[in-house]
Amino acid sequence: MDQAPGSPQEPQDTHGLPGCYRHPDRETGIRCTRCERPICTDCMVSASVGFQCPDCVRTGSGTGHAPTASMPRTLAGGAVASDSRLVTKILIAVNAAVFVVGLALGDDFVNRLTLIAGAFDPDLGEPVGVASEGEWYRLLTSVFLHAEIWHIFFNMLLLWWLGGPLEEALGRVRFLVLYLVSGVAGSALTYLIAAPNQGSLGASGAIYGLFGAMIVLMRRMRYDLRPIVALLAINLVITFVAPGIAWEAHVGGLVAGALVAYGMVHAPGGRWRTPVQFGAAALVLLAAVVVIAVRTAALT
Question: Where is the Peptidase S54 rhomboid domain (predicted)?
Answer without folding.
Answer: 134-265
